[in-house]
Amino acid sequence: MNWSFRVSSAVQQESHEVTKLMKRQVVISPDHCTGCLRCALACSYFTTKEREFNLSKARIKVLPGWQQRDPEVSLDGECNHCGICVEYCEFGVLSRAETGTRAGPESSE
Ligand code: SF4
Ligand code: SF4
Questions:
Q1: To 5 degrees, how large is the angle CA 96–CA 81–CA 28?
Q2: Ligand number nearest to the C-alpha of 14
Q3: CB distance 44 to ligand 1 below 6 Å
Q4: pLDDT, position 61
Q5: Ligand with an atom nearest the CA of residue 77
Q6: Is 62 inside any structural domain?
Q7: Which residue among 85, 87, 89, 93 is best mutated to probe the pocket of ligand 1, counting the most ligand atoms within 8 A of its Cβ?
Q8: Which alpha helices (DSSP H) does 4-83 contain, by range?
Q9: 109 C-alpha vs ligand 1 centroid, how far in Å?
Q10: 2 falls within a domain
Q11: Which range marks the domain in which residue 94 is found?
Q12: Mutate which of 41, 46, 72, 93 to test ligand 2's pocket (most atoms within 8 Å of Cβ)?
């Protein structure tokens, strides 16, 4: 498994631009989740100032199918929908979709 956690400049740029553009939200289709936890590890590493792999700090929570009948993937209230976890899911569980609402200071427009 390749654990070279490098976020593409495109995603970093997009994370910055999301405050100015249409807000995009992470959409979850958990049926094909393998429980690999790459999404959660990437989230904990890239979205915390400690820069550590720590599942307890991940804003995406995974309960894989081998722990219960159906896999569950959810985002907590701290998730900013930056999309980093989407880039690290290789199984098509995570995607992003525009919500049609504006984020940031322009949101009242
Ligand atoms: S979209 Fe949410 S869960 Fe995914 S990496 Fe960003 S903050 Fe973490
Ligand atoms: S959502 Fe994707 S990256 Fe996260 S545990 Fe499931 S299969 Fe792995």
A1: 45
A2: 1
A3: no
A4: 96
A5: 1
A6: yes
A7: 85
A8: 9-17, 38-46
A9: 26
A10: no
A11: 24-108
A12: 93
Place of tokens 């219960």: 68
* List of residues 6+ apart from 45 with CB closer than 8 A: 5, 51, 52, 53
Please report the beta strands in 1-109, taking only residues with DSSP state E, as ranges in sequence order. Answer: 22-28, 60-63, 72-75, 94-102
What's the rounded Cα separation, in Å, for the pair 59 and 80?
9
Mean pLDDT by 10 residues, the chain (109 residues): 52 52 85 93 96 96 77 94 97 89 44
The CB of 43 under 6 Å from ligand 1? The reply is: yes
Minimum-distance ligand 2 atom for the alpha carbon of 88: 3
Nearest alpha carbon, ligand 2 atom 7: 33
Dmax of the chain from CA atoms? Answer: 46
pLDDT at 46: 97
CATH of the domain at 71: 3.30.70.20
> How far, in Å, CA of 40 to CA of 60, rounded?
6
pTM for this entry: 0.75
